[in-house]
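[Automated response] Your request has been received and processed.

Submitted sequence:
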Amino acid sequence: KDTSFNVTLETNFDEAAGQILIQRQEIGRVVLNLINNALYAVGEKNRLQKEGYQPTVKISTIRKGNEVLLNIEDNGLGIPTAIKEKIFQPFFTTKPTGQGTGLGLSLSYDIVKAHKGELKVESQEGIGTSFTITLPMNQSYA
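Generated structure:
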């Protein structure tokens, strides 16, 4: 929405990750939600701290054994420790009214669990946040 805002998007996709069987639309919605959250976080930090700050979102995949890890990392505001354990609860949002209208982390968590995977978060307030989706290889989702 803000045409003056620029963000660096870095990607690193592991070719060894190959392909996995997923419901593409569902996992796609999760990934889009996590990227939107990352863009929001770096946008807010940019608004507050412009001097010397380069908003960056990194997206990577890596294969570890029989799993594929998808990581979405930002150097935004980070998640305050006081609310970190609440972020996967239904209807919880840190965004102002009208701005938290995406899929939500609770539904994202449920979708990843339905794929027999995990959604984990690591965050340091003021430094940034990293969400990692771990999905098993060789699964079937009907």
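Summary generated for your ticket: The longest helix spans residues 24-48. The two ends are 37 Å apart (CA to CA).
If you did not submit this request, please reply to this message.
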